[in-house]
Write a structure and sequence with these properties.
The protein is mainly α. The protein has a domain at 8-103. Helices cover 53% and strands 4% of the residues. The chain has helices spanning 20-32, 38-60, 64-79, 89-92, 97-101, 105-111, 118-126, 170-197, and strands at residues 130-132, 135-136, 152-154. Strands 2-1-3 form a three-stranded antiparallel beta sheet, with no helix packed on it. Helix 6 packs across helix 7. 17% of the residues are buried.
């Protein structure tokens, strides 16, 4: 059973961790999804591997019990929005690491526009500014079920809940500054043309 005080590892490292192609892919994914380190990526890869192993076992099985297990397995993945309704066990084998990374709370917060960057999304979650279905979450790697995806909001007692918070309006301020700069440049170029005509 193992020592109850020592937590079991939830991931396995790559068999060949120093392959150039693999290192490049991992680096891209870590930067794109704002992961803390490669361990986060390996945890997701291990979870995906577990799903695929389950799918392979179910494909090989037959009988009434296999049908029940298959139905429950697909319902679980549909709840997580990893496979669409009416999907088969074969569809599970086509899932990729990116499919699971897209379901992480950190990614969802960024995609829904609650943070300006993927890294800021992680900071907001860890600092307790984000709620999912009325419950505060501080785990960026939480895989969001499809039925609560629309319920991701700022925490009620968070300073970010105020629509006028400067961190929320950062992109708006940048856009306005760019528009003003373009207008000024346009006016300057028009004045230059008028002076040349004189």
């Amino acid at each position: 059973m193992g020592d109850p005080k020592k937590a079991k590892k939830k991931y396995s490292r790559p068999q060949h961790p120093w392959r150039r192609a693999q290192l490049g892919e991992e680096k891209i994914l870590v930067e794109e999804y704002g992961l803390k380190n490669k361990k986060d990526l390996w945890k997701i890869a291990s979870k995906l591997s577990h799903f695929k192993q389950q799918a392979k076992k179910l494909i090989a099985k037959s009988g009434a019990q296999a049908e029940i297990e298959e139905k429950l397995f697909l319902e679980k993945l549909q709840k997580m929005s990893l496979v669409p309704a009416g999907a088969t066990v074969d569809d599970v084998l086509s899932l990729s690491v990116k499919d699971l990374l897209e379901r992480r709370l950190q990614t969802m917060v960024f995609r829904r526009g609650l943070a300006n960057t993927i890294f800021q999304a992680r900071q907001f979650i860890v600092h307790g500014h984000i709620m999912v279905s009325g419950q505060k979450f501080n785990v960026p790697s939480f895989l969001v079920p499809g039925n609560v995806e629309e319920m991701i909001t700022y925490s009620g007692n968070s300073a970010l809940a105020d629509p006028e918070h400067p961190e929320r309006n950062k992109n708006k301020i940048k856009d306005e500054a760019l528009k003003e700069a373009k207008i000024v440049k346009k006016e300057e170029s028009e004045e230059a043309v008028v002076e040349e005509e004189k």
